[in-house]
Amino acid sequence: MEKQRFDGLGLSPEILKAVAQLGFEEATPIQSAAIPVLLAGGDLVGQSQTGSGKTAAFSIPAIEKVDPASKAVQVLILCPTRELAEQVADEVHQLTAFKRSIHSVPIYGGASYERQLFELRKGVQIVIGTPGRIIDHLERGTLKLDQLKVAILDEADRMLDMGFRDDIQRILDATPEERQTVFFSATLSRQIKELINRYSRDPQTVAIERKDVTAPAIDQWFYEIPPRGKTQSLIRLVDFHGFRLGIIFCNTQRMVDELADALLAQGFSADRLHGGITQAQRTRVMNKFKNSEFEFLVATDVAARGIDVDDLEVVINYDLPHDPEDYVHRIGRTGRAGRKGMAATFVSGRDIYKIQYLEKFTHSRIRRGVIPTPSEVEGKRSEVLFVKVRDMLASGKFSDQTQFTDRLMEEGFQATEVCSALFSMLLGQVGTPEPSSAPKAAPLPVEIPMDEGFAQPKGFKKKPPFVPKSPAQGKPAFKTGFKPGFKKNFDQGNQGGAGTSGKPGKFSKGFKKDRGPR
Ligand code: AMP
Fold first, then answer.
1. Is 180 in the pocket of ligand 1 (CB under 6 A)?
2. Amino acid 215: pLDDT
3. Nearest to 6 by CA among 123, 95, 73, 69
4. Dihedral, CA atoms, 449, 455, 457, 460, nearest 10 degrees?
């Protein structure tokens, strides 16, 4: 199924603005197919899963049908559960952000009648609700559907499974016959078909046909993560594996910006690509990435098309793609030219079921992974550094720096202490100390902060910074006031490196070489 640009779908400027504000770059397959049919006024049966963008597929044209001059209810969206009604209401709210005279209200059981009554009396054109509470309001006369233009049944199969058949019929019977009727359902059982036959006229069925696609033979993993823990999980995963070149995919421009900012703030060498960035800037970022001038590209699917970088170590699906084809395109960017690559996909909540779906369509196995704990990350970083130093010693490829060791030993330090200080510095446990005359400042914590939803693992203890004692003076050899390891790199690199959106570049080429294992 072809994906369309939103600006080619005949939508109002207000909707296009809202879609841009949400960060959507192009319509998903179900949106591309359903929006034109619904705008033309036809009835529709949409067969698609949650996550396909179905909510916007039916909400956008429904919003376009509303006459803002009338305060009557013109669109009704029926949902099986309160949670879904809330989600749909939230999306409708965002999509109507620039249509100020259009109001919507969610109506479901368990919430206060008063508030719902207040909103209904004010006059709302779009009602999103669960069948039971809608019936209550109809019976009390507080909700009138006699001017309804569009009736939408979201997850119709689930509503029938939950025994709402009679309620649905009573609700639809209270609406004008000439209304537009839209059914969205993952499956089309006999019961659903009966309902469709009874309540819609000549509906067009829109099902997203999936071409089976074959995923490349690379290591594929998925990680189940609470939505608010994604950034920290990403950082741990990257730190643990020591990745130095990868693309991180997000579904929206907004998410790309948020994540790129978060990574830069955590000391990563990262930049961003999305459709909201000028072409000249995109070309610049793309070229820098090809030249390995920064390590992680955060991108949307649209912007990353055409990137041809061969030796990516990892592709991370920070957001699960809407389309299995996008999944295959994304992960196909790693493991090229016979190199070993890895694809990591983050999923939250009900998205977990979509992994099986992806496996089916891509004929591949996606294994469940576990995000390493902070202490595992710490252990791995130390190990990587240790092996590097040992290899360097074995190769003999290092310059003679004995003058520093000699000077420190003359001051009374042991060679082992000198080594420990250097290891600590390289591991980022302590930064470069201020000169001893500098005023004292509080040490900064170095462990990875936790997002909500993540507990510190049992037994995880913050390591105190290593402060060698000077035997000569019997006091700390240097004052505290450490900066985290990346701060120095930040300062050195802050001369116009990565970082778009008009902000000064935060890291330069030097960063990659300078940064010790995180
Ligand atoms: P749904 O299938 O309606 O549950 O949508 C799943 C998620 O995709 C929601 O968070 C939407 O906000 C998001 N979404 C919908 N359409 C698009 C689009 N065209 N581009 C990016 N994200 C979208």
1. no
2. 67
3. 95
4. 40
> What is the rounded distance in angstroms from the CA atom of residue 148 to the CA atom of residue 75?
6
pLDDT higher than 80, residue 446: no
**Run of H or E residues at 206:** strand 204-207
Report d(CA 31, CA 355) in Å as an integer.
22
Q: What is the pLDDT of residues 465-508, one digit of tens each?
A: 333 333 333 333 333 233 333 333 333 333 333 433 333 333 33
104 lines ligand 1 (CB under 6 A): no
Distance of CA 280 to the CA centre of its chain: 25
One-letter amino acid for residue 511 of the chain:
F
27 touches ligand 1 (CB under 6 Å): yes
Return the amino acid letter for 11.
L
Please, what is the average pLDDT of the chain? 81
Residue 458: is its pLDDT beyond 90?
no
Instruction: Provide the whole-model pTM.
Output: 0.66
> Could you tell me if the CB of 274 is within 6 A of ligand 1?
no
CA 374 to the chain's CA centroid: 22
CA atoms within 13 Å, Cβ hemisphere of 63: 30
Domains in the chain: ranges and CATH:
6-207 (3.40.50.300), 219-374 (3.40.50.300)
Pocket perturbation via mutation, ligand 1, pick of 22, 81, 326, 346 by most ligand atoms within 8 A of CB: 22
Q: Is the CB of 32 inside a 6 Å radius of any atom of ligand 1? A: no
Please indicate whether residue 131 or residue 207 has the higher confidence score (pLDDT): 131
Residue 488 is encoded by which pair of tokens? 């120095």
pLDDT greater than 50 at residue 232: yes
d(CA 249, CA 314): 11
- With a 6 Å cutoff on the Cβ, whether 21 touches ligand 1 is no
C-beta 251 within 6 A of ligand 1? yes
- The reported pLDDT for the residue numbered 516 is 43
**384-397 pLDDT per residue, tens:** 888 889 989 999 98
How many angstroms does the Cα of residue 31 sit away from the middle of ligand 1? 10
